[in-house]
Amino acid sequence: MRTRKKILRTALALAVGTIFIAPSQIWCMDASDAPESVTIDLMAELYGPVEFDHLMHTDVASCQDCHHQTTGGEVTDPSCARCHRGTDEGDSVGCSECHVTDRFNATNVKALEDPQLYHFDKPGLKGAYHINCIGCHKTVDGPTGCQDCHTMTDAGEKMFSTGKHAPAKGTSSSGHH
Amino acid sequence: MNKLLNRRNFLKGGLATTAAAAVLKNSDTQAAGHFDGYPDSMGVLVDLTRCVGCRSCEAACNKEQQLPEPAKPYDDFSVFDEMHHGQKRRTDETRYTVVNRYDVPEIDHPLFRKIQCNHCAEPACLTSCFVNAYTKTPEGAVIYNPKVCVGCRNCMIACPFYIPTFKFSHAFTPRIMKCIFCYDTRLKDGKAPACVEACPQEALTFGKRTEVLEMGKQRIRMTPGKYVNHVYGEHEVGGTAWMYLSSVPFDKVGLDTHLPNEPIIYSVKDFLAMVPMVLTIWPGLFVGFHLLATRKDKIKELEDAKNKKNDEKEEQV
Fold first, then answer.
1. Which of B8, B32, B192, B229 registers the highest number of CB atoms within 10 A of its CB?
2. Pairing of the two strands B134-136 and B142-144
């Protein structure tokens, strides 16, 4: 039952990492308006979806630690404010509204040639999640191992030659840790 | 006939030939001269401050290139402690890329460095190969054609990064094993290599070489103190398609910091340009010297013979 519920919730998520909130007066919202939980299923092929406990994280971090200028208060950084104060970009709260899912495909790589583009080194969605999550977890001693957050799918185990797909002979990892 | 062996004419001729050879030599060197790399070549920026040593790139490479099953699972991190003949793991016929861990005393956490073929703008492997088994494609990949390879392994000696490896398990059908930037399956269709796509941390950034180089420089500029002020591979051995950013000096993460900024071929180019000249001019030159040096002896011999004859005649008379 739990799995079905999970799948249902995953299917309902419009875009990965999207947070379901009313899109008005975003930067006036505070932690109490935020969702309790967000399902992240970006790497669903290799890893099962991550049930991100958003509520818990609002206790340990400020909104802007993750959402940059887009929520939790006015834009204060002067170099961000030049463009982002009171603009549409400021209304984008979900990660995937700015961070693309396939950063290195031919179209996205080509788009970087635009000389007017300011954020030309903007991480893709997968990079944004991991850099942000692991970056912070390292400093606060949070979990940093792959499977601390994700459970590996069968395809994942195949890719990593582990679990059911571990090399038949040869040394096992278990003795070393 | 006397004119042929006239000393003045001989020296004149020799001088003219040497001058001609010198001119030819110069124009040769220029023709084979500087190559800045293909303008639209792709590249990858490896940011060591982002790598967490998850080995996803190794796993992805193994599957993409259909390499043999690894000895240990890719989520087994004991491989970072492996030492082979006093060295950390390196690329071989079963793996085109490896991630190694470096414990740098100055910082409180280990660093991880991925290594694979760096896809030089002017590759030493390519220039050392006398059957042209290697090609530098306009997309930036250095690819290899096993059909013409004779297994001489010059490329393995020439490579400044010790990347090409020999498939010793099939020694009679010579096959060099090395990263090809996923050229066949991805790069030629404009797609990023498998390792880049697999990297969760975007420690690997794929794009036009000029763009990713710019990103590297911007990261150095925007986060003062985070990085060493150098993009490794921008100039090394004439520039490479894969480049590195690090928070510690590059020699601390196993990268050679004594490489020249010129392509490896430049170290031997002058010598190689001299070979045809030596082979064509020197035989003539030294035969000439020899004839000149022995000319007097010959004349003397002839005269002696003549005198002898005359003496004999006189005696008879």
1. B192
2. antiparallel
